[in-house]
Amino acid sequence: MNINTFWLRTLGILGIVGGLILWAGDMLLCYNGSSTALYLNTSTTSDTRVIASAITALISSWFYVLGLGQVYYAFKPTSEVIRNTVIISFGAILMGYGVVHGAFIAIATSAKLAAEHNLDFESTILLATTANNAIRVLLYPIFALLSILFIAQVWKKNTLYPRWMILFFPLFLFLFQGVLDIILSGKAWVIIMGGYLNLMVAVFFTASTIALWRPKE
After folding, report:
1. Residues 6+ apart with CB under 8 A from 27
2. Whole-number Cα distances in Å, 4 to 11, 112, 118
3. 110: exposed, middle or buried (Cβ count in 10 Å: 0-12, 13-18, 19+)
4. Distances from the Cα of 117 to the Cα of 29, 41, 42, 122, angstroms
5. CB under 8 Å to 183, separation ≥6 — which residues?
6. Tens-binned pLDDT, residue by residue, of the chain (217 aa)
7. CB atoms within 10 A of CB 9
8. 3-state secondary structure string, 162-201?
9. What are the sequence ranges of the domains in the chain?
């Protein structure tokens, strides 16, 4: 199995960068250094930061899709059906991250309007938060399918990933979120939990790049 090692590593690095870019987009929206109320923080975010944050959703989605080339390589030993299902499912989820972030711009905009016009905060952002949550719900069954296939194939050693890659799969990182939510506080909580989903993807691609740094031929 021939592979250009440089490009394989580059694809993984692009996935890492994609996660960090969208994490930065999260911070542009919800970080102000003095409050852990993420939605409320968006009401004081400048227009420039909101626009910049929206752009990060587009750029990171491009990088995420490119990063999946590394996962495709790792799953080449599996059947075509499994490999394509994993890549399509993973791609749908990662692109969904960008869409969810884009929908979060509506929350920020609604929050700013509530603050500027002295409107009831919760009712003003309700429609935007409901739409955001609806998008997330559609991604859950896809994530469940991906988790079953990815974990099963890696555990059975049907891929080029070592078994320890399972620990860095987004499902387990997502479950670990509850632990961090308890032990973190203040600015550290906002920095980590405010952009956790994208940091999670950056960690996954970091582990993937390390695992495939010297690809098997």
Report:
1. 191, 194, 195
2. 11, 48, 58
3. buried
4. 20, 16, 15, 14
5. none
6. 456 888 999 999 999 999 999 999 999 999 987 788 888 999 999 999 999 999 999 999 999 999 999 999 999 999 999 999 999 999 999 999 999 998 899 999 999 999 999 999 999 999 999 999 999 999 999 999 999 999 999 999 999 999 999 999 999 998 888 898 899 888 999 999 999 999 999 999 999 999 999 876 5
7. 17
8. CHHHHHHCHHHHHHHHHHHHHHCCHHHHHHHHCCHHHHHH
9. 5-211
Question: In the structure encoding, which two tokens stand for residue 112, read together?
Answer: 């700013």
Helix (H) or strand (E) holding 43: none
Q: Which residue has the tokens 């990060």?
A: 56
Task: Take residue 75 and report the two structure tokens written for it.
Answer: 């799953």
Comparing C-alpha atoms, which of 178, 60, 44, 54 is closest to residue 113? 44
CA distance 130 to 98: 17
